[in-house]
Amino acid sequence: MEPPHTPAADTAAAFVTRLSVESPDRMRDLGRRLAALLRPGDLVMLSGELGAGKTTLTRGLGEGLGVRGAVTSPTFVIARVHPPLGDGPPLVHVDAYRLGGGLDEMEDLDLDVSLPESVVVVEWGDGKVEDLTEDRLRVVIERGVGDTADERRMVTVSGVGERWRREAPTGLGE
Question: What is the pTM of this model?
Answer without folding.
Answer: 0.83
